[in-house]
Amino acid sequence: MTAAPPAPPHVPRSALADAVLERLTATYAAAADPERAAAMRAYMKDVAPFLGIATPARRALSRTVLAGTPRPEESDCAAIALHCWRLPEREYHYFAVDYLRRHAARCSSAFLPVARHLVTTVPWWDTVDALAAHLVGALVAADPALTADMDAWIADADLWVARTALLHQLRYKERTDTGRLFAHCLLQSGHPDFFVRKAIGWALREYAKTDPEAVRDFLARERGRFAPLTVREALKNIGP
Questions:
Q1: Which pLDDT score is estimated for 8?
Q2: Nearest 10 degrees: CA dihedral of 117, 141, 73, 63?
Q3: Half-sphere exposure for 106 (CA within 13 Å, toward CB)
């Protein structure tokens, strides 16, 4: 019997979130481009509707929206992100991701359920990967007790949760828990989905920038367990 998904996190009361969302929706809506929106939606495989705002313009608008706003508390970060995720257009999700990247250090380990909700709601690589590397990774680095959650996430039936566990150490470099990275890769080595196989290769390729010999040795022992795509991705910059 499949377990029921977790209930959506409670949206905290936040005057800052209310003010930001009022500015944000007005500013973004005024810049909408329906023709560009259709092309962006098609490129992203129809995962969500778009307003049609290109990334450089969107980030410039975001700076306008946030001008003069104070540094948030954790509850403000949660409220802004969850309110944005309730809006259908993808640019609002991107705004939330950028905001959380900027303020990840303001969030404690108690923020992890919010991160999981964002990862599993309207999931696609365009939001999941940034959340994995810049939010979840930051939370785990700040509180090593959360490695137990990553050990649970890697075995999760939701491929985006597993992908997040694979990618959460992407920016750790010398701080990478190599044993956990390799164990996670092996645990999902037989996964049938492209996005998980690709994530394994990407995680290994990124760590190979820090310790190429460790990655070569690992794949010399275990490459038969991985899809060719994964091996090519892992060895892309260091060779066999």
A1: 79
A2: -80
A3: 14
- The type of residue at 54 is A
| CA neighbor of 183 nearest in space, from 212, 146, 141, 155 | 155
Provide the b/e sequence for 34-54 (b: ≥16 CB within 10 Å). Answer: eeebeebbeeeeebbbbbbbe
Alpha-carbon gap, residue 123 to 142, rounded angstroms: 25
Q: CB-based contacts of 50: which residues, under 8 Å, 6+ apart?
A: 36, 37, 38, 40, 41, 44, 89, 90, 91
Burial status of residue 101 (CB atoms within 10 A of its CB: 0-12, 13-18, 19 or more): middle
Both tokens of 94, joined, read: 């991107």
180, 150 Cβ separation under 8 angstroms: yes
CA gap 175, 140 in Å, rounded: 12
Task: Dump pLDDT digits (tens) for 188-234.
Answer: 999 999 999 999 999 999 999 999 999 999 999 999 999 999 999 99
At 192, the amino acid letter reads P
Which residues are CB-contacts of 198 (< 8 A; sequence separation ≥ 6)? 229, 230, 233
Confidence of residue 2 (pLDDT cuts 50, 70, 90): very low
60-88: pLDDT as tens digits: 999 999 999 999 999 999 999 999 999 99
